[in-house]
Amino acid sequence: MPSSHHNTYLHTRVAVLSERLMHPDEIRRLPERPLEQLAAQYGLEAVLEESVPAPNRNRAVERALIRTLISELSLLIRPMYGEARELVLYWARKFELYNLKALIRGKLGGLDEQSIEETLYDVPDALALPHRSLLRTESVLELLRQLEQSPYRVIAGQARQVFEEQHEPFALEASIDQSYYAGLLKRARELQGVDSREMKQVVGLQLDQLNLVWLLRYRFSYGLSATETYYQLIPSARKLHRGALLGLVNLSEFDKVIRALPYPLDQVLQGADSAIEVEKRMETYNAMLQRKLMRHSPSAVARALAYLVLREMDLKKLFATIQGKVLALDPALVSFVVQGDAKAARMEGHAGV
Amino acid sequence: MRVFRPLRMKHVLIQVMTDELPRVSLTLADLGLFNPDYRSVEEKDFPTIPGAEYRRLHNQAISRLEKIRRLIDLHESLELPPVRVIEEQELSQLNDWLGEVWAIGSSYEEKFRRLTDDSRLLDQLEASLDNFADLKVDLSLLQGEKQFLNLFIGIVPQANVRQLEEALGLADHLLYTFLVSEGNANVIIVGPRDQAESELQSVLQSADFRALPIPPELRDQPDRIRGDIRERREHVLKRRKATEEQMQAWSDNILVELENARKVLALAEPYVLLDTAMRSSGQLAAVTGWVPARDIGRLEQALGESLGSPFLMTVRDPRRDERPLVPTALERNSILAPYETLIKQYGIPRYGEVDPTPLFAVTFVLMFGMMFGDIGHGLVFAGVGWLLRDKLKHFTQFVLLAGAAATLFGFLYGSLFGYHVLHPWWIAPLSDPIYMLSVALLWGVGFLLTVSFIAIHNRVVIGDFWGAVFDNNGLVSVGLYLSVLGGVFNLQSSGSFGTPAAATALACLLALMAFKWLEIKASPGERALVVLIETLETITGYVSNTLSFLRVAAFSLNHVALAIAVFTLADMMDTTGHWITVVLGNIFIMVLEGAIVTIQALRLEYYEGFSRFFSGDGREFKPLKLKTGAAK
């Protein structure tokens, strides 16, 4: 358990950093702001030069924003140690997993080294896979052999089955995600006392959103069976626990699933008729609750992770806005992606944290 | 004196025909005197960085060679042929060939991997069969297609079991774990056959389930089954051996070509390593770098002899603003080499700064000797260093010199393995501890003054004249230090600090405070606080650093005191016990005190010494060279 002065320092750090989060009104106005203004505010002028082709500019912006997030993470983990630090660092491994999926997808698809490299994120060395040596592999089997020597050996085993049996790599990517989030929840449980309790809330909020979206997509968009769908889910410590998920996967209609959701999710998602809409509403609801946790949780570590989750959401919206402007997309589309769901935002009374 | 100063460097700009760049890179690498300056020339004048495709081919070829070396042993060192330019076409062909070789090598790696997997599966099978053999169940029921049941027997990673069990429960299937071994669970899965097999297979695949074949004869003929497994294991071993032999034959066939490939890549490497230090604009290219001033002539001559077309070499001194970027090239000999390693733990001297290595070598050895003075201990130390010279390599000199210094001081103290049987050439430490402390104090004063003057010199070299005079460890600080020392000496000898000493000290103090006041840009209150604190820090720094050297005397006394303790214990024993205690006690003193004294001497060097004058943020001189070691 971190000592009290570490906690105080971390609480203060989170409080100071939280000033960087965008207010919901600010997020709503993002699509209306000129690109130059956004670039100036977030220090992106150099990467948004007109002379650079649009895809390269977007890539550079994405990388710059990830670097921002990672540098704030580095600040927050300084006063942490032990399992708390490990958990927050593990959270950041999601960027490593983006790279892992891109590498596997690229190799399975027969892409050349340069094409794959362009899709990779710059991740700090402490978090990074040895992606140089993975990139330089010259066949899928060689990539898998290298992965088998890494902490991802279980995924390598599954990847081999996918490759050898010519199955759709979707199952493999789903396994990677499932393995990651299961690991996150496991680490939250390993913390002590109030940190564990609060961290399970922070992680549980994300898992509830993911579980529900995955459940709806796998069951009703991809047509997977209840068995196949359940295996890919991760029972969370919040609303969508083991029992709830077992009940929901067996339902055969989208509406029934929504109506059978535990309170307050059933209220938040009332009337939603697509997985995209569910995802949007859950994200808004999730953000609202993460903000509450970030402001009021007695656990400094949980507050820190809640901040990082919110910050990542903000930076993703910023990136979506900039990407839309660089590619000259329909402003209505950009607004749809960026702006939260108004109804979910009004569900504060049903927070139930 | 050259031993105290790094080599003077010159900035060199070589303008040549673009086609000659590979030859230029080879000439530079062959000479081993050119440290590329990657800032290069102005991009607007020379917009292109040549050799992109060449670099790509080289990097890929090197990567392939490294992977091949995992399977095939090549010589550690490399004898290069006469230097020649490697054209891009040759490099491309070599890269393609290495690609083909690696494809074969990769197939061997894959074969070995599968053999290891088969072997592991047999282990799992054997462990499972041991369990099954004890069951009072007709094992034929577990085999083959069943009309009403789905039945799977296999292995699943333990981490996936719970989730799989619950998922299968949704399909009305049961999962039973009958053995857990090495992170894997051996399971039986059974359920009604009305479920679509493809769904179950999909879930099992996601869970990394692997089926285990259970021979139906297991129950009745367990020995036969075990015999089958043994045979299969032997078959795997045979296949492994055959594959190893095939691979050996294949590697023997291509060994010579691989060594040639290494040589070609080593010759191609300098062009790749120049990277952004070379730029081109059409037919004209420029290469920039740093060369020791004394070698400019050699460089010009070598380029003149190797290039077929005219070139222009422009040489200039480093500009003041460039100093942090100029690499530092230190002259080395075998005696100073181990000290260089220890210096590098702290950092590289900035260009123009005094090389601390000779000072470090002399002072370290003397302090070690003074703290560890004993003839016997010193000789043992040196003797052990000599015996372990193959393991210690260039650190052997370090150990020998330290041992020699300890031996010398042993004669000065008259100590042999703790026995004072010799008349000391100087003084036995315990005979006058106050005198020893005074000597240590004087040594500290001398050391601090020396490093302060070095700090002043370093500041003058970089043009920071104000800093050389007024900053910490500047002339005024030294004046303050000396005046305080003088005053304290007066106090001790005549009971009065002395007006000249006091006046000098006060004047220096005021000068320091005035400089800091003018330097700091802040509100008056903050300025006053910072000036006060920093001035106090300067004074206390000198005082504490001086007193720190008392440990040199303290450890020399400690060395003697430990010996006394050992002899006291030894005297309590009978004759045999006495000598055993003396021997073991001396070994204990050598090991324990040897380590402590080394650390203390290093600490004095780093903290009291280097921190005063040595920035440690210099760049090491790393010239382009043809590599004859293992390919990297």
Spatial extent as radius of gyration of chain B: 37 Å
Outline the low-pLDDT stretches of chain B. Answer: none
Q: Biggest interface, which chains?
A: A-B, 29 and 30 residues
How much of the polypeptide of chain B forms β-strand, as a percent range?
5-15%
Oligomer: heterodimer
Q: What key phrases describe this protein's structure?
A:
heterodimer, A: 353 residues, mainly alpha, 19 helices, B: 632 residues, alpha+beta, five-stranded antiparallel β-sheet, four-stranded antiparallel β-sheet, 11 strands, 60% helix, extended
Describe the structure.
The complex is a heterodimer of chains A (353) and B (632). Chain A contains 19 helices and no strands. Chain A has 353 residues and is mainly α. The longest helix of chain A has 29 residues, at 193-221. The mean pLDDT of chain A is 84. Chain B has 632 residues and is an alpha+beta fold. Chain B has helices at residues 21-31, 52-69, 88-133, 161-170, 197-206, 222-274, 296-306, 337-346, 357-371, 375-387, 389-392, 395-413, 433-461, 465-470, 475-494, 499-519, 524-548, 550-571, 575-613; strands spanning 9-17, 35-36, 149-157, 174-181, 184-192, 210-211, 278-281, 284-292, 312-316, 327-328, 619-620. In chain B, the strands form 3 sheets. In chain B, strands 1, 2, 7, 8 and 9 form a 5-stranded antiparallel β-sheet that branches. The longest helix of chain B is centred in the middle third of the chain and has 53 residues, at 222-274. The two termini of chain B are 37 Å apart. At the A-B interface, helix 8, helix 9, helix 10, helix 12 and helix 13 of A face helix 2, helix 3, helix 4 and helix 5 of B.
Quick overview of this protein structure:
The complex is a heterodimer of chains A (353) and B (632). Chain A has helices at residues 4-17, 24-29, 35-41, 54-77, 82-108, 113-118, 131-135, 140-148, 153-164, 170-190, 193-221, 226-232, 242-249, 254-260, 265-268, 275-296, 300-326, 331-338, 342-345.
